[in-house]
Design goal:
By secondary structure, the protein is an alpha+beta fold. It has 7 helices and 5 strands. The mean pLDDT is about 90. Bound molecules: FE2/S2 (inorganic) cluster.
């Protein structure tokens, strides 16, 4: 089991307390922990289970079922490629190959520099815009031909490089 620092444990406890008496608290809690920590630490599962009076296995089941939750730390930026039927037909596989090469992240993994996680998602309900990709919550239509997505990724890589160089020279 991993060991979270006290700050993270306090943040998780605070989130649980905020939501535990609401209707359907588990997803609300998981959503906020994912946003706060960037993933769902394993240590959070028994805390949520105890507060919501549910078995740990049930909490684990929710985390595993929804693609938006991850038990592993995610990259600083999350690129999700829609693999619904319309997006698949319109080139989602080519989109994955293109952005695997660009970000150096394997599918459902995080790049070695921790900058990008490359995920897939089910239909986002925007099939008319296929193939669709979502970068940090921003939807990119016709992502295979959309220069803005590649531009944004290159910009984030450049910013990261500048920041890393600055830290090395400091
Ligand atoms: S299949 Fe991708 S948005 Fe519907």
């Amino acid at each position: 089991m991993e060991h979270l620092n006290q700050t993270s444990l306090d943040a998780i406890a605070r989130i649980i307390e905020q939501h535990q008496n609401k209707a359907g608290p588990v997803k609300l809690i998981l959503h906020d922990i994912q946003r706060e920590c960037g993933y769902i630490p394993v240590e959070a599962l028994p805390m949520i289970a105890s507060a919501c009076h549910k078995p740990v296995a049930e909490i684990y089941g929710v985390v595993s079922f929804y693609a938006q939750f991850s038990l592993k730390p995610k990259g600083r930026h999350i690129l999700s490629i829609c693999m619904g039927t319309a997006c698949y037909v319109k080139g989602a596989q080519a989109l994955i190959a293109k952005f695997q090469a660009l970000t150096n992240a394997e599918l459902n993994q995080t790049s070695a520099d921790g900058l990008f996680s490359l995920d897939t998602t089910r239909c986002l309900g925007a099939c008319g815009l296929a193939p669709v990709a979502v970068l940090d919550g921003v939807v990119y239509a016709d992502a295979i031909h959309n220069p803005n997505l590649e531009f944004k990724i290159r910009e984030l890589m450049h910013e990261h490089e500048m920041k890393t160089q600055g830290e090395q020279n400091a």
